[in-house]
TrEMBL record, chains A, B:
Gene3D superfamilies referenced in this protein's UniProt entry, alphabetically: Winged helix-like DNA-binding domain superfamily/Winged helix DNA-binding domain (1.10.10.10)
Upper lineage: Bacteria, Pseudomonadati, Pseudomonadota, Alphaproteobacteria, Rhodobacterales
InterPro entries recorded: ArsR-like_HTH, HTH_ArsR_DNA-bd_dom, WH-like_DNA-bd_sf, WH_DNA-bd_sf
CDD domains referenced in this protein's UniProt entry, alphabetically: HTH_ARSR
Domain HTH arsR-type, first and last residues per copy: 1-94
NCBIfam families according to UniProt: HTH_metalloreg
Top-level lineage group: Bacteria
Protein name, per record: Metalloregulator ArsR/SmtB family transcription factor
Length: 115, 115
């Protein structure tokens, strides 16, 4: 995947807030209006809208307006860059453990042969 | 997993910086001294150490000192809470798509029966 470091920064930073993660958790169950989304939060609407806009800026949600109602929905595949980065880290780590395992096996074999 | 929202905040925020992600990518290949780690970065040492401390605070790396040398290594399983959260989101999303699929199948069957 061709991804600028800035995109990963924006994604991880967007996820580093409990309100924004709660919004995403709600939207994973289906789209919602801003009013529905804001309901459970004890927060002024402008602050709440700031969180929605931050998620929109990170490409995690999309919003659309019909009349006076703004609907928010999750962007399919928006978590993919984050997952890919984590998968790469796991692959590097497991590759390292495999090499360590090979090394220890060889070492034990050499010792057994030498004894 | 029993995880406070604050822990996820700290983890995601720690990952939202290119220098800190690069440190983690390097450490996935094996432990390194602070001097080795800092090498590729055009950054004053105190700023660089700030990033290492931030990763340590999030529980992503461990450091140990022998003489004047500080070694940094990845904490095994440190990404697990982040992965778990992403997996939960995927499960919610896929559950939603499954229900939508069931609904559409039932709707089409009802229409076919009715025609």
């Amino acid at each position: 995947m061709n991804l600028s470091p800035g995109q990963l920064d924006t994604l991880f930073q967007a996820l580093g807030d409990p309100t924004r993660r709660a919004i995403l958790e709600r939207l994973a169950r289906g789209p919602a209006t801003v009013t529905e989304l804001a309901g459970p939060f004890d927060m002024a609407l402008p602050s709440f809208l700031g969180h929605v806009r931050r998620l929109e800026g990170a490409g995690l949600v999309e919003t659309s307006k019909q009349g006076r109602t703004r609907t928010v929905k999750l962007v399919p595949g928006a978590f993919t860059p984050v997952r890919s980065w984590l998968d790469e880290q796991r692959a590097l780590w497991e590759g390292r453990l495999d090499r360590l395992d090979d090394y220890l096996t060889r070492l034990m074999k050499e010792r057994a042969d030498g004894s």
